[in-house]
Fold this protein.
Amino acid sequence: MKTCNSCSTSKAVTEFVKNRSTKDGLQAYCKPCNRAYYQTNKVTIAKRASKYYQTNKAQIAENLQSGTCGDCGQACSLRSDHCRECFRTSATISYGAAHHRVRALHGLASNYQCVDCNGEAREWTYAHTDPDELSELNSSGSTLVYSCDPGHYEPRCKPCHAAFDKFF
């Protein structure tokens, strides 16, 4: 059991997002409080990310050119400014940013065959294989589950994507 620093409710550890940088390996806020924070502050968070990008545009471009991770400085083969390990351990990424990372790494899903029917894929699908998966609420109140790691996504056509998501 762990107590949420936001709602002060004692909950099972499965109700907390993992965070390797903390002593107990878990976020201070429970998943619902974490979701509420990001929903309430998504404009501020987006502005902060945009400001960071504008401020560091030259460094990001240099990292992309040199194949060096912008976080840890290690060489990486991703077509991004972060290495796979830094992607995986970033717990503050949104659902949309996670899909942006997938497209930045793999390109459009339409360049691939659907993993289920071998038809033309249209969308990247989270495979539900990441033990550190994240979730957030969309505008209609549905929970979106996703991963920071682009390696946990698969290309699917729309019908197969819908059928796959029914299992989760």
User: Anything to note?
Assistant: The first strand starts at residue 2 and ends at 3. Residues 125 and 165 are 9 Å apart (CA to CA).
